[in-house]
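Hey Z.,

So I finally got round to the 4'-phosphopantetheine thing we talked about over coffee. Here's the setup:
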Amino acid sequence: MSEREGKVWRRIALVPGSFDPVTLGHLDLVIRASSLFDEVVVAVLENASKQPWFSAAGRVLMVQREMAALKNVRVVRFSGLLADLAAQHGAEVVVRGVRGGSDLEYETLMARMNAHLRPGLDTVFLPSSPQLTHIASRLVREIAYLGGSVQGLVSEKVAMAMETRAEEKRAEHAFTNRGAE
Ligand code: PNS
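And the result:
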């Protein structure tokens, strides 16, 4: 906490994402953000444009469970502009994890656009921890779908949810493709 114009000022950071599913990389990022800021709002994107594996409500629940031990972290669901959400929560910082060069390019663009939409809204990039740099939700979904192990990429609870969802996905595909051969 710090003081601004004689008032106590809490530094609030937003950690937005699709969290489809929440990974150990996300957890690491939020733990680190929670030690850097007074309050962290984890914002789960509702209308993830790509068809998400898990519903928004399901993703929020999963993220809440993973972050339950972090006392200065709240989880919200959002749609619309991140810049508006930041204003709503009094957040002046967005925190994003960066795994490498291509992440940085995309994230820089988003950071500048968010600052354009809401002057004063800044973005802090945290480099992913070296042992987690290979983790991406998209790859985790692909591995689960193909029957591989997602151990070490997501928590045990999330791994179990993924196994169930992967089975449903495979059944859906088998149903859609029946008679196609
Ligand atoms: O986990 P992801 O999919 O990398 O997260 C992307 C996210 C949610 C951060 C991004 O899509 C986002 O901020 N969406 C909100 C819509 C928005 O504000 N768009 C303009 C930002 S440049």
